[in-house]
Amino acid sequence: MNIIIVKDYEEMSRKAAHLFVAQILNKPNSVLGLATGSTPMGLYKELIRFFNEGMISFQSATAFNLDEYVGLEKEHPQSYWRFMQENFFTKVDLPVERQFIPSGVAEDIAAESYNYDKNITSKGGIDLQVLGIGRNGHIGFNEPDLKFEARTHVVKLDEQTIEDNARFFDDISMVPTLAISMGVKTIMQSRSIILLASGKEKGEAIKKMLSGNITPELPASVLQLHPSVTAIIDLAAASMLD
Ligand code: F6R
């Protein structure tokens, strides 16, 4: 794993954006794996800036998001579909028909999950996947103790994840308890991965991720087995490293 320690959130976002820009310039029809949450918002801002300056185009790219809450309609203010519209998709030229996010309201969620992986494979697989990390070490919504071989599937969110994500909802009781998420196996099949971490609350998870111990109890630890991971970690998130 290539570990880059940076000063702060802004530098993390800039460095991540540079890797995305290089990916798009090298391969305009790249398949990008995208994430939601606070962590990648700065990355999306930087990419929008590069797009507005005419340096890159997403015209030929394809995007697959990691996850979506089960039970939230697309238009729900906290759906990840809505997050991606507001923070990225409506601000760049990535064609609508190549923006993929799993549906949290599919009648048959098992079929939705199966078809999501099939669709990724049919587009040639993910070239570059961006990941945040949960305080409990989750990647996507793969919570501790889920098997590493899981593909896209329905997951029950941990209490801690529900608490963490309650900041986006009016009340903690409104946070969905289930999500549909790419599995660890789906994520590990990406050709390259960028893991981003900012803030001292991620310190413990980062320390465990890099401890050398690979265990489903700390899902991000599996990334130590991937041949092409760049972890961009700010000083606060790296503060527990020796
Ligand atoms: C989001 C996702 C999650 C988040 C993680 C960190 O699509 O899959 O794994 O990356 O929960 O969230 P933030 O960035 O809000 O701290």
Automatic annotation (TrEMBL):
EC number from the UniProt entry? 3.5.99.6
Instruction: Return any one Pfam family short name.
Output: Glucosamine_iso
Pathway listed for it? Answer: Amino-sugar metabolism; N-acetylneuraminate degradation; D-fructose 6-phosphate from N-acetylneuraminate: step 5/5
Residues of the Glucosamine/galactosamine-6-phosphate isomerase domain: 11-224
Catalysed reaction, written as an equation: alpha-D-glucosamine 6-phosphate + H2O = beta-D-fructose 6-phosphate + NH4(+)
Instruction: Spell out the InterPro entries in the cross-references.
Output: Glc/Gal-6P_isomerase, Glucosamine6P_isomerase, Glucosamine6P_isomerase_CS, NagB/RpiA_transferase-like
Q: Which Gene3D superfamilies match?
A: 3.40.50.1360
Catalytic residues per the record? 67 (proton acceptor), 136 (for ring-opening step), 138 (proton acceptor), 143 (for ring-opening step)
**What residue range is the signal peptide?**
none
Q: Which GO terms describe its molecular function?
A: glucosamine-6-phosphate deaminase activity
Entry keyword set:
Carbohydrate metabolism, Hydrolase
Homology family: Belongs to the glucosamine/galactosamine-6-phosphate isomerase family. NagB subfamily.
> Its function?
Catalyzes the reversible isomerization-deamination of glucosamine 6-phosphate (GlcN6P) to form fructose 6-phosphate (Fru6P) and ammonium ion.
Give the protein's recorded name.
Glucosamine-6-phosphate deaminase
Gene symbol of the encoding locus: nagB
